[in-house]
Design goal:
The protein is mainly alpha-helical and 151 residues long. It has 4 helices and 4 strands. It starts with a helix and ends with a helix.
């Protein structure tokens, strides 16, 4: 029981459980909104009288409730749009603001053994681990850095 208790009390599990409960409640609200307002509006726009979610068509003696599908599709689109615009987009903007990533392109050269690209400053190839010949600029840059560190 001790292991189970520590698993349940971990922050990620509790956060996930709260998120699922809030998501289920949010979905119920959106489904109610779609049933109460949007599905009847779609029914009016399409010329169907009454509740569109109860509409069916019959083929071969079998009833197909297409209105329930339209209702579920509208609910799904609203939930997905709300999650994207109210959760994903703001979190991405906050993440960019507080933890921007800068893609710095490091100058590369080819490994003489395997021809894979490696950074110019590398001493060994990451792909084949063969030693790379030093470039004249490397030795002067390394010497200059060593002098700076001595000071």
């Amino acid at each position: 029981m001790k292991g189970f208790r520590s698993f349940i009390l971990r922050g990620n599990v509790v956060d996930l459980a709260v998120g699922i409960v809030i998501g289920a409640a949010f979905t119920a609200v959106v489904n109610g909104f779609v049933r109460a307002f949007l599905t009847p509006l779609v029914g009016l726009a399409s010329g169907a009288t009454g509740d569109l979610s109860r509409k069916t068509f019959t083929a071969g003696g079998v009833d197909f409730p297409y209105g329930a599908f339209v209702n579920a599709a509208i609910s799904f689109l609203l939930v997905a749009a709300a999650l994207y615009f109210l959760v994903v987009l703001p979190v991405n903007k906050l993440h960019e603001r507080f933890a921007p990533h800068h893609d710095v392109q490091v100058p590369k050269r080819e490994c003489p053994e395997c021809l894979s690209p490696v950074p110019v400053e590398a001493r060994r190839c990451a792909a084949c681990t063969s030693p790379l010949p030093t470039l004249p600029a490397q030795t002067t840059a390394s010497t200059a850095e060593g002098h700076r560190q001595d000071r």
